[in-house]
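Protein in question kept in full:
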Amino acid sequence: MSFVFTDIEGSTRRWESHPDEMMTAVARHDDLLEDAMSQHGGVVFHHSGDGVIASFRSPLAAINAAADAQARFEAGDWEQVDGMNVRMAVHVGDVVMRDGEPFGWALNFGSRLNAIGHGDQVLLSESCVESIGNDLAQPLDLVALGPTRLRDIAQPTRVFQLVGPSLRRDFPPLRNTVTNNQLPLPRQSIVGRDAEIEAVARDLEANRVVSLIGARGVGTSRLALAAGHHVAAQYNGGVLHCDVGGVNPSGVVDAVATSFGIGLRAGLSIEQSVVEWLGTQDLLLVFEHCERAIEAVDRLLAAILAGAPNATVLCTSERPLGIEGEFIYRVAPLPSTSSARLFVERATAAGAMVDDSPAVRELCEQLEGMPLAIEVAAANAPIYTVSELSDRLRRRELPARSGTQGDLRSMNEAVALGFDALPEELRHVLSAAAIFAGSFDRAAFAAVCMPTATPSEADEAITALLNRSLIQLHHVDGQPLFRLLGVVSEYVRVRATTESNAAASGRFVDHMIALGTTAASDLRGPDEGLACRRVGEQFDNIRAAFERSLASGDFANAATLATVLWEYGFMRLNSEYSRWSERVIDTFGAGDEAQLAPVLGVAAIGAWFRDDLQSAMELARRAIRLETEFELDFDLPARLAVQNATVYSGAGAAPPDIFAEVASYQRSRPELYFHVNVDTQNSIMSTWLGDTEAATRRAIRAVRSARESKNPSSLAFALWALGSALETEDEPQAETLLGNALDVAREVDNGWLTALVQMSLASLRRRSSSAIDAVPILIDLLDLLWRAGHRSHLWASAASCSATSGRTRWQSRSAVGSAVHSWRCHRCRSTPRRSR
């Protein structure tokens, strides 16, 4: 059958701003859609409050109905509700008819497709376009939007947009599509490298490992990122990225695993866990600045190449890695014409008045075509003329350039030029900024680099450094963030005194602890999404602060950093964070047990996470014993570890005394976040006991509290409980609630809740329609847990899906088995770009 899906864009905002007017407007909206669909032979069979689903026997009729409806909305007067912008999607797929109403995966697919569109836009699925062939009548036409990943859909799908006289043509990029491309977006244009981007793309097609080799500042990283974006669509599994430049060599594998979202597996090292997860996936892996930890990178890449035959690797380094099969692409400085164009472009952007001239070309020749050197010099163009810049470089009287390091020295000259032109106070500030291992915002800069300055003074300093290209700017969530390039950081770090380094290091650790403490609180409030992204953006710095504390023997700070964000590590399935507590125990285990107790609880969560249930119980029991012995604060992580280790080991339900203690503690807390947890857990217990009425009542109370708290994870948790309670009473409503819970959990990157909801949703779909409808979401669930290394939850999820499927034991095992088989086939299946 053919279907049209509709939804009002921004309906929540309109209901809040114009509640009375929206009652009338939505009624008009429904009548308009009913009439437009019926005029083309369609039947509206589902209302979702803000949209409808209509069925048609002909895809052309569905397309014409959507175009007709959009024209009517465009012609209507919706001023009282600030407009009525409706997104629509047309999809063709097989369904199962039940009591005259269609059911099946086609409806779920169409809803996912509709969700990525914009108001006034009409999207068509690939199956819809294929079914109409060349029969689409003028003046309607199609625009291909390219392959797109949809939520819960294993493979990319092609999406098309319907265009015509009454239809808007220009829209922003599609909304909320699943992206598997981790590469950072370019911060500035790349000049003079078009041919090299194409060349690197061809080399990636023919080789498993391509290394871009060049001196610091020649532009290997920018070329790698540009080439990676250029070829990203060719890799079914996407592109994963890790910059190992600021990582201690001993922590390279951990940093890579965290960047890739891969957790530790029971009985395996973290390196083996990374290789096992990569398996046969069709991926491009991009590693930056490998020369700073080349031996560790070599070992990891050798293991990846041996154990993940479908992975392709693109590296940047100052020297070859020396691994078998490595294809070396040497990145040369820019030629004269491109060098001059880069200087003029950057100098003009900085506010200077320059043109391509012999003087500019001479300056670029002095800098030997090194892009970073040219950019640093161009940043000084508003202060000095081109001739003055050239004279200052010439007067440095450095050794004559020769050999392979000539270009490196020329770039250091440019960095030295920018550094020496700074007032002495700013030199000290820049040296302090070199302590950061990743990006930093203005607040972090002020706290670490200028602790006694006023906010305006700190802003002036950061602007001065930015204007001289000694720090780089990028934006996350609209917030400006700054970062030192590696070559600048190294240049200024060696010039800092030991005393100033120690002082800056202490302020850096203190600031990261403060950031973690604030984020831990915000993760339970309405700003959870922002806090989660902020921790992710600052994780390199938090890791560096932890390593500094551990190396200096600062037990208090190391323990704080290893525990303050335990909920972030737990909910985001970040196994690296959970292992920090184990390192604290290994380093300071013989110390004060009272101080060690909170670390034991977090370590217990980590042990359960990787399926080491015996260690989890031992650590948790020890933490609870110390809590009682020394009258310490309530250890929630330790008790959660006991609960989960008991349940997932198959030993039975959570111990009643532990469950009661956790519930009582959470009820005593002022934050609604904890109250929602109690009501949700009680609702789920009632669902398991078959008391649907009590489960529904408690879940509704949890949803109300969650909405009041405005915490996304609380809302997702409560919606999951309510959907689970209604599964046997109202399957369509349960499907909607679970779908909403899944969307909310994903928006804040809550992998733990995402897995719980996917488990319930897969079970519901298998029971309400067929096993095949559950396979896509179960594939996604298995991939999520497999990547995280969460074996306890992985197999418990599959078992729970099986147990609640409503079929015989044999049929349940068959359904889960077919899903696991499909998942394995999906992991092994790739569209070959070449013969491997």
Observations:
- The chain has a mean pLDDT of 86.
- Residues 498-522 form the longest helix (25 residues).
- The longest strand covers residues 141-148.
- The two ends are 40 Å apart (CA to CA).
